[in-house]
Write a structure and sequence with these properties.
Largest sheet: 7 strands, mixed
Strand content: 5-15%
Helix content: 40-55%
Shape: globular
Length: 459
């Protein structure tokens, strides 16, 4: 007897070809766990007949979902949902800012098998150049070119993740004891690097588009010791989720040219933005050190960072990178090469973007009154509030088995009293995320209704 599929075919309510709408609808139902591991999917012709679309569209959608590792086809048996095993435990972690998992053992095994047929032993039997092998730099330069960043392979250094790239960027553009300007609330990893490298981070006021140009200009005009560099995240800023528009990016660059300071652009979330906005390195390539990676937009285990530097800083950056003694993994580069070749990278990126939007919808269900709205496919959200309240919430949620990021770890100035909560949505399962955010909502309800405070922040 033929087994009836539990899935009722539908198309996602969005613009685009029928195949893409089917991909997003089925992916949403799998990732939200409405379809269990091993669930049978309807035959191609059944889906086409019920949705009044072509069989070819269904075939294209099923193939794309197979490349994402969400479904598998067995000849003579049918097509089935593949579950992703997640570590379960008493703690729900909303402190780790990583993308949702879009890779399972089947896809990884297939990738490694294909890569093994192509990889050359030369890359494993010799020490790599400090900046990575030329073949891999050209590969990553091509990837960046596809995102709109003009990357010369001779100025592109590959690192073991974005954190190493940022460490090299700091050491290349500043000196111990030097001042680095950044947003008032900033990436916790940058604060750690500043402590280790003995740099002095100075916070600049922000608004709903990120760093405030007038505040930046005022600090640069009045600071006795000229800062050596400006470090900022113009797209989906960590932790606030703010994204700079066209005019804001041009204003920031204009001020940096006026005061002749360098820019470190942290663009690890660049592929997740909604609009086609220029990277700062495109607006000022002569003074911008560009940092990005594949970890935040594709797969955390791919420790491939990219550091694009102006010509005058290449040798210093190479010297600094060489001193770290840590090179990019040739195996990781081989995996990315295979994914770019067979379309897996594009499919994973699309899947991560769609899952980010679904998780944002879950967050809005519970926290729309308190959260600021990110302008992109963000998997972290920001709830602005006084630091004292944020500290109490972090402590209270820990007692409930939910881990949150400590507000102090994101403040450029330790004595700052305005802070908030960063909630990372990517790691937990949808069920865990619903439970954790419901608990946060309860805590906020007990604390009182959100109110507007001067400057537009709310708590």
């Amino acid at each position: 007897m033929r087994i009836v599929s539990p899935w009722k075919p539908r198309l996602e309510d969005m613009d685009g070809p029928a195949s893409e709408r089917l991909i997003e609808a089925l992916a949403a139902d799998i990732l939200s766990e409405q379809l269990e591991d091993g669930a049978r999917l309807p035959a191609h012709r059944d889906v086409a007949w019920k949705l009044k679309i072509s069989v070819g569209s269904v075939t294209k959608a099923y193939r794309a979902l197979q490349r994402r590792g969400l479904i598998a086809s067995s000849k003579g048996s049918g097509t089935f949902v593949i579950g992703r095993r997640r570590p379960q435990g008493p703690v729900i972690d909303l402190s780790v800012n990583a993308p949702p998992a879009m890779l399972n053992e089947r896809v990884l095994s297939s990738t490694l098998a294909m890569a093994a047929r192509k990889v050359e032993s030369f890359y494993f039997l010799n020490y790599p150049p400090p900046a990575g092998h030329e073949r891999h730099r050209m590969l990553m330069a091509g990837w960046l070119g596809g995102t709109g960043v003009d990357a010369d392979p001779d100025r592109l250094l590959l690192t073991s993740g974005a954190q190493q790239a940022l460490a090299v960027a700091f050491a290349t553009t500043s000196r111990p004891g030097g001042v680095i300007l950044t947003e008032r609330l900033t990436y916790p990893g940058a604060l750690t690097l500043a402590q280790v490298g003995n740099y002095r981070l100075m916070g600049v006021a922000t608004d709903n588009e990120g760093m405030n140009p007038a505040a930046l200009d005022n600090i640069l005009a009045k600071t006795k010791e000229t800062p050596s560099v400006l470090y900022l995240t113009p797209t989906l800023h960590n932790p606030t989720g703010a994204t700079m528009g066209w005019m804001r990016r041009q204003e920031i660059v204009k001020i940096c040219k006026k005061h002749d300071i360098l820019i470190i652009e942290d663009d690890v979330y660049g592929l997740l933005k909604n609009e086609d906005l220029p990277s700062l390195v495109n607006l000022a390539p002569e003074r911008t050190v560009y940092v990005t990676s594949l970890s935040k937009c594709l797969c955390p285990g791919l420790r491939i960072g990219m550091l694009l530097v102006p010509p005058q800083l290449v040798q210093k950056a190479l010297f600094t990178l060489h001193a770290t003694g840590l090179s990019v993994s040739a195996l990781s580069c081989a995996v990315v090469e295979q994914w770019l070749y067979d379309g897996t990278a594009e499919n994973m990126l699309s899947s991560i973007g769609g899952e980010a939007l679904r998780r944002l919808a879950i967050a809005r269900r519970y926290l729309s009154r308190w959260m600021t709205e990110p302008s992109g496919k963000s998997f972290h959200i920001w709830l602005p509030m006084p630091r004292s309240q944020a500290d109490r919430l972090v402590e209270g949620m820990a007692q409930e088995g939910v881990l949150l990021t400590a507000p102090a770890s994101m403040l450029a100035r330790e004595t700052d009293t305005e802070a908030g909560l960063r909630l990372c949505l990517g790691v937990p399962s949808p069920d865990e995320l619903n439970r954790a955010l419901a608990l946060v909502e309860q805590k906020l309800e007990c604390a009182g209704k959100p109110v507007i405070i001067p400057g537009g922040s709310r708590y």
